[in-house]
Design brief:
- This protein is of the alpha/beta class.
- The chain has 15 helices and 12 strands.
- β6, α8 and β7 form a beta-alpha-beta unit.
- The radius of gyration is 21 Å and the shape is globular.
- The chain starts with a helix and ends with a helix.
Amino acid sequence: MADEMRRFIGSDEKNPFEAMSERFDRAAQLLGLDPDLYAVMRVPSRELKVYIPVRMDSGHIRVFEGFRVQHNFARGPAKGGIRYAPDVNLDEVKALSAWMTWKCAVVNVPFGGGKGGVICDPRQMSIGELERLTRRYTAELIDFIGPEKDVPAPDMNTNEQTMAWLMDTYSMHARHTVTSVVTGKPVALGGSLGRREATGRGVMITVNEAIKRINLTPDKTTVVVQGSGNVGGIGAELMHNAGYKVIGISDVGGAIYNTKGLDIPAVLKYWQDNRSFEGFTEGDHLNNKELLETDCDVLAPCATENQITSENAGRLKCKILAEGANGPTTPKADKILHEKGVFVIPDILCNAGGVTVSYFEWVQDRMGYFWSEAEVNARLEDKMVASFNELVHYSEKHDVDSRTAAYMLAIDRVAYDTRMRGIYA
């Protein structure tokens, strides 16, 4: 099996599928994973590529390219978001679908992994064009998604509105309303209270646990957040409200920084009004590279993949790295961070608040009974704290770093279910 593993490991540090695969291979080898299970679990169950004709506002037809990858069904239906982006590609979607498998297993929810993407630039499209794109993309996926098959959710550049269109299109084909086909919907259409804030809240909950390991309290902890959207912005605001000193935050265009702490609600209001931090006067302006290398206790990359690489990992000055984004750190950077003594809260745990509350939403839709926001948040905290403690215990038991422990824990659970079901016999 070791030779097989080495054959799969590539040399492209920033290829997300190779990064996922390298981590999977290391964890599988440490677990002594059966070669047959290894062969099954390492590759996706299904990859679907579709071409989506859309009539644009100009009257002309444009054909978009889309994907849906379903990585694993051993523990339940596939689960994962849909992203709209000009640079989305199949390797990225494959990696994200696998990460979803491990993420669901780490927090022990009964889903496998899935992910979707469409190559487009939503910033250059009207609402009508986006609706037509979403509905046609959904129609192409009709036979592959459903409450018992694959349950999509929002991701980069998609939102509650996108999910409402997807649910409505699926329901039209089913001839009845099927709220549980997607999560991340508007609350009025069967969405869950607390879902929008769930990923950022999960980041805060895991940071709360991690700072205890270095004898810090929120009021003594400085935080830098990369990203001001649904993960970074919400996470920063929740941490600010909990007493953390958030000293830096960024968007795609740059960052602001103040050693005395930023008034995060005011910062986010300015950003929502201007869609930029340009002109904000209550802090110094930095570029994103400088922000990542700022001295802080907690660095939370909550933007996109490959932000921390072998090139800049040695210059990070944080004690804790809380990965709010998927795949923000490359495997080569992992080794450097481990040598520096940085405690990493790996993405497959740190940002799992979103899929955990998505699971709660799916459960509520299927019951037809909905919980209060306080109950959702309490259940989320219970699940995230328990998962954090299981990861730490696994790390100590096997004497491995936290990321390797997270992969080992996830792979162990998926392997057990696969073996018990006998689905590779």
